[in-house]
Structure formats: structure tokens, C-alpha cells
Write a structure and sequence with these properties.
The complex is a heterodimer of chains A (about 260) and B (about 350). Chain A is α/β, with parallel strands linked by helices. Helices cover about 30% and strands about 30% of the residues of chain A. In chain A, the strands form three sheets. Chain A has a six-stranded mixed sheet with strand order 6-7-8-3-9-10, sandwiched between helices. In chain A, strand 7, helix 6 and strand 8 form a beta-alpha-beta unit. The termini of chain A are far apart. With about 350 residues, chain B is mainly alpha-helical. Chain B folds into two domains: about 50 residues, no CATH class; about 250 residues, ABC transporter involved in vitamin B12 uptake, BtuC (Orthogonal Bundle). Chain B contains 15 helices and no strands. Chain B is globular and about 65 Å long. The relative contact order of chain B is 0.16. The interface between A and B is large, with 38 and 33 residues.
Chain lengths: ~260, ~350
Amino acid sequence: MMLEVKNLSFSYPHRQVLRDVSFAVPSGRLVSLLGPNGTGKSTLFRCILNLLSGFQGTVSIDGTDTAQIRLAKLARLIAYIPQVHYPAFNYTVLDMVLMGTSAGLPAFGVPGLKETERAYAGLAQMGIEGLAERNYMQISGGEQQLVLIARALAQDSKLLIMDEPTASLDFGNQVRVMQCIRSLVEKGYTIFQATHNPNQAFAYSDQIIAMQGGTIIANGAPQEVVNAQLIDELYGIKARVESLEEGRIRFCLPVEI
Amino acid sequence: MESLKNHGRKERLTIIAMAVALVAGVLLSFALGRYPISPGETVGILLSRLFPIQPFWTERMATVLFNVRLPRILLACLVGCCLSSAGAAYQGIFQNPMAAPDILGASSGAAFGAALAILSGASTRMITLSAFFFSLLTVALVWLLSQRARGKKILGLVLAGIMVSSLFSAGTSFIKLVADPTNQLPAITYWLMGSLSGAKMSDISFAIIPMLIGLIPLMLLRWRINILSLGDDEARTMGVNVGRLRLIVIVSATLVTSAAVAVSGTIGWVGLVIPHLSRKLVGSNYRHLMPATMLFGALFLLLVDNISRNLFAVEIPIGILTAFIGAPFFLHLIVKGDARA
């Protein structure tokens, strides 16, 4: 499942957000989008997910323009995984995951045995079947994020768009969630995620896209693209990029304290 | 996998128990009243319409049962069912457990319509029609205004609802000011309190059509309301046509609210309290919540109406009682309740 964005530009009244953005997310890869707050990452995601209209350029999946794809069909191609949030009502984990199966159901349909099996399969892939009957509000933030990923898996789409999936998680949960995400890539899923953590880009991504001021300023393999100069350009801070374990682990650390 | 099939079993059993309680409540309510009719006689009279049974009751009993109690019981159940399910539906689409059936101005529109009709000396039938018409008009106005509002759709709807509601409330106040204080003003005040007294079969035959037109889609689309409650963006990425689904739910909930308010006046609290209580019993999933709320709402209003017509020598308008019973009960749950809902 390949995602291709071509010459994408988007303006709100009186303010241009995206300027001629073009890139591709190859099938079966994890691509991370780096960029400072307010640079248009969320707007880019909203364009890709067809939540915003009125943009110039095209977003296509395996060569088909998403503007030509019906909403329910699109949902079976791309799934969106939001940041952990609190819904207005306290659904059980299984109910939450079952909502991902709606695209394949008729308008008046309710999920049946087949959908329930799919929901359990999604939970099992994330290793959290045991939480099925628990209440979504009463599990940890890391578990909630895994539930939202399981819901996307139940949606049956192979391209997953994630908006900072580890944003509000503790140190351990960040690693656990990223390991789960990486395992999905190994199973053939294509993932495009936004992240604020350059180290995640090193550890788990196949490709980095760096965005600043609504345009792409770098695009390539993590070890080639992410360096002190890029960090400075993106975030305006001095940082050093170092290696550990004979170059197997690379990391980036700010040197201004 | 046996456990997959068992999912939701407890909730389904609760719903069945509620249905049984409602049937029992209806039969019991027939027997309650100034004019005593025993449960045995009640069942006999009801069955005699279907089977040839030798009457062991008086003709008067049958008349009271069919012309006075039956319409009132039916109306109490229907109004309770409608207000509660509309409340639950609005709470889902506005992602807010505090939303009530009149959030889009259905009640204040109906009140204005009724007051206007009473002022112009219209018949009871015309008062009901005018209330229904103005109720729908108000919500339509709110919807149209919100479509022109910039920014978040849901916030625009709620704000437009508040504004248009207060506009119509001001209109109602003005009508009360100019109404004849000897007969029109008390009639308006009494209507605003909400009451099921004097319910007739003609009220039901008028209200049942819009009620069914609204209740059926709410029931059919109930599971999708879950997805709307997660917010527009998430729902859309799951393949839900948010704008269309929300419009259908709003139209349905408005139809049932307007029909209920038109025949019963403004009965508060039911649409807020009952969905909340139902969540405690069957959880938040609308698949079970919607039918549970419908049954529970019908049962609740039926019981409160029984109190309203039997407890005191003078009948207390049901709208006052629902607040007297609803508010403390609600407070008790907030203070003592468990964390499920």
C-alpha cells in the first residue's frame, strides 16, 4: 500500500500552511515526519485523510487519487490513529475496537461474530486481548494507545496514519508502543507517523521526512538525513548526534542546557 | 470461541428485564386510580377485546379503562420513551452527557407555539399542532443558523440552540404579559408545567406518527451514534458520513421531542436523567443503551405519572414531579454512584 503526495498546497484564509509538498511513503515501511509545532504536520495529515478539502495537488494510494474514493472505501485503505484522548463516554475496550469495523457494515448494521473476531485479532496483535472487557477510561495511557492501534487493525486497512502515537506516554510505554508499531511494519503494514522525538526516528523508522514552514526540507534514510544541522534548522537548538554499540544505536541529544 | 458470543449477554438480559418490568408496570397502572378496578378485572377487560369473555366487570369499568386510563398510560410510556431516547441521541452526537432533548430549542419553540395558540383562543387540537409546528421550526432555524456559523460545527449548533431558545422564551414571556390573566395566563402556565392529564386517544393518534418516524431511525442507527461520539474527524476516518448521519439523528430526535412536548408540555429531567441511569445499567454502548433508555424512560414516566395522579387529592403536574424526583436522585448518584458511567 503506497501513499503518494504530489504538489500539495493548502491555505487557510490569510495564511498558507502547506507549500508544494511532495513525497512518497513506500509500501511496508515506517516513515516518520519530523517538524516543529505549528509547521503544518496536522494539516498535512488532515489532507491525506481527506478531512480537509480545498487543497491543491493530489494524494493517491497505489496510484488512485483519494478524492475519487468513497468515504467508506477510503476507510478500508487508510486508518487514522489519533493521540490518546478521552471519549465523552466510557466504552469497553472491545466496543472501542469494534467501532473500527463500521466501514464494512451496512448502514443499519451492528457488528456480529465476524467483526468481533476481527476486533479480537487486532487486540491479540497488540498483545492486549486480556483488556477486552475492561473500560477504556480505566486502563493506562500506553494501553489506550494500543487499543486505538488495535481499532485501526480491525478497520482492515494496511496503511496507518499516526499522529504522535507516543506523545503523552511515559518512557517505558513509549518504547513498548513503538515496538508494537515496528512489529506491524514487519507484518506488511505501511505506517506514516508524526513524531517529536528524533531518537524514535533513528530507532524505528525506515525513512525520515522533515518539514519546516510548510515545506519539506529533508527526506531520506535516518542516518543520512538527521544530523546536528537538521535539528538546528527544525527546532533552533544545538544538538549532537552520536552512536552507541558500534553504531547500532544512534541518538541525538541537545547540548544547550 | 464461546466468549465472543457471550459478549453483551448481561446487557441483553437487563434489557429483557426492563421490558418485563414495563409490561408489569402498565398492567399495574391500569388498576391504579380514583375509580378502583382490580388487576384481574383489568386483564379481563383487555382480553375481552380479543377473546369472547363473559363480563365479570361493569360497563363503566371498561369505559374508564379504555377512554381514560389506556390513553394516559400509553401517552406516559410514549413521552417517556421519546424524551429519553432523544436525550441519549443528543448526548451522543454532541459528545456531552449533559445534553438534553431541548438542547436545540425544541421545548422553547413548542412553548411559544402553545402560548401563541392559547392567546389566539385556539382549540386544544390547534394548541398541540401549533406547539409541534413551532418546535420543528425552532430546531430548523437553529440548524440553518449553525450551518452559516464559522468554526466547529457542534459548538455552532449548541450556541445557536441557546440563542434561538432564549429568543423564543422571550416571546413566550411577552405572550404571558399580554395574555388575559383570568383564563389565558393560567392555561399557558399550566401547559408550561407539563402534564399528561386529560390525555385522549386522539393525542396519541396525532403524536404516534412523528414519534415512530423518529424512533425507528434512532433504533436502527444506534450503534453508529457511538462512532459520532468520538468526534467528527475520527468518525470520518472510520468511513462514517458524519454530516449526513448527524442530520438524520437530529431530525429523528427533534421529531420525537417535538411530538412529545406538543402533547405533554415541557417535562424536564427525563431526557437527562434516564440515559444517565441507563448507562449505569447497560454501559455506554448505544447498541444496548438506546433500547434500554427507551424502555427505562417509558417505565419511569409511567411510574411518575401514577404518583402524579394518585398520591394527592389534587393532581400535581408531572413536570414538577419529574424535577422533584429526578434532581435528588441524580444528585444521589453523582455522590454515591460507581464509576461505570
